[in-house]
Amino acid sequence: MQKTPKILIVDDERFNLNMLNGLLKNDYKIMVAINGEQALKAVNKALPDLILLDINMPGMDGFEVCQKLKHDPLTEAIPVIFISSYSSAADETRGLEIGGADYITKPFNPSVVLSRIKTQIRLKLQADLLTQYAYKDGLTQVLNRRSFDERLSYELQRCSRALSDFSLILIDIDFFKKYNDLYGHQQGDYCLQKIAQTLTSVCRRRSDQVARYGGEEFAMLLPDTNLQGAKAVAEATIKAVGDCQIQHSGGASSQKIVSISLGIAHIKPDQHITSEDVISMADRALYSAKLNGRNRYEVATRG
Ligand SMILES: [Mg+2]
User: Fold this and answer.
1) Which of 5, 42, 200, 281 gives 20 to 30 Å between its CA and that of 271?
2) Are 119 and 24 contained in the same domain?
3) Residue 124 Cα, ligand 1 centroid: separation in angstroms?
4) Max CA-CA distance within the chain?
5) Are residues 89 and 15 in the same domain?
């Protein structure tokens, strides 16, 4: 089911807020702000799908609010509709030039406003969907391989600059080919989805990322994580997957359930290292985990 789109209304006059709120509250989730500072805080916290922005406000005016939003990668994609009593062509041009999606002058016709809002919301939801297709793996909803590659190289550079530890874990489902042979590909897909969900539930920090690395291989990116932290995540992951109790009569565990093998690569802050190096370290560790009986993790460090 699709969630109700969120609209933030920004206006310093209570009368205008109430009128717009009354017009929109049946179809949208409404938030309000009465000045620019409050608006920026609300946007960063709730990331609305659309902002209706008054221009003439005490303190920071609507133009400035819009400029700030358009300069922040987190908020630049949120459409802004100016709703203003300034009706000159110069004001309208300025509003559109600094990134406004539309410009409506007060007093306005309610049904015109409604349909222009509807258009902007539709475009925003379409853009969100495209972003999701571009970054996520369709089956499991974790990051796809391409976003993983981008993210890995970004985080490696960031951790190296910040003199911070970095860990990568590669994860492979034990005897997954046999699982597909025994239970069919549809059940195999279910297993992949369940494992992806489980990995996501273990990676709770906002900076941690789970990706689908290949067929039945996943990866966890753990920035700012030392070896002890990475081992704790690996142990929690093995346990969480075991707790899922996905039956696998040809599996590696004595309990006849699906298990995973993990390879940890840990990089110390002073090591300069490429994405390829980290992946091959994790790959080597994963290979050892397989050799040593599966349903376990092994570690590769450098130096
Ligand atoms: Mg005003």
Assistant:
1) 200
2) yes
3) 26
4) 76
5) yes
User: Do 118 and 23 share a structural domain?
Assistant: yes
Identify the helix (H) or strand (E) that includes residue 128: helix 110-135
How many structural domains are present in the chain?
Answer: 2
Instruction: List, as ranges, residues with CB under 5 A of the ion ligand 1.
Output: 12, 54, 56-57
| pLDDT tens, residue by residue, 77-98 | 999 999 999 889 999 999 999 9
Q: Find the 26 Cα to ligand 1 centroid distance in Å.
A: 24
Instruction: Compute, in angstroms, the gap from residue 211 CA to the centroid of ligand 1.
Output: 46
Residue 236 confidence (pLDDT):
97
Find the domain containing 252 and state its range: 145-301
108 CA to middle of ligand 1, Å?
14
What are residue 264's DSSP bridge partners? 169, 299
Backbone angles phi and psi of 179, in degrees to 5: -60, -45
CA distance 141 to 243: 21
- How many A from CA of 13 to the centre of ligand 1? 6
Average pLDDT over residues 265-269: 90
Ligand 1 centroid, distance to 85 Cα (angstroms): 8
Mean pLDDT in residue range 255-281: 92
- The number of residues making up the chain comes to 303
Look at residue 270 and tell me whether its pLDDT is greater than 80: no
Q: Please give the distance of CA 63 from its chain centroid, rounded to a whole number.
A: 29
Residue 206 has pLDDT above 90, yes or no: no
- Its sign, for the CA torsion 121, 127, 133, 136, is negative
**Same domain, yes or no, for 56 and 168?**
no
Could you list the active site residues? 216
Helix (H) or strand (E) holding 178: helix 176-183
User: pTM of the full predicted structure?
Assistant: 0.70
β-pairing verdict for 29-33 and 6-10:
parallel
The pLDDT of residue 303 is: 54
Query: Is the N-terminal amide bond of 107 cis, ω within 30° of 0?
Result: yes
Q: For the segment 98-111, what is each residue's pLDDT rounded down to a tens digit?
A: 999 999 998 889 99
Q: What is the pLDDT of residue 228?
A: 96
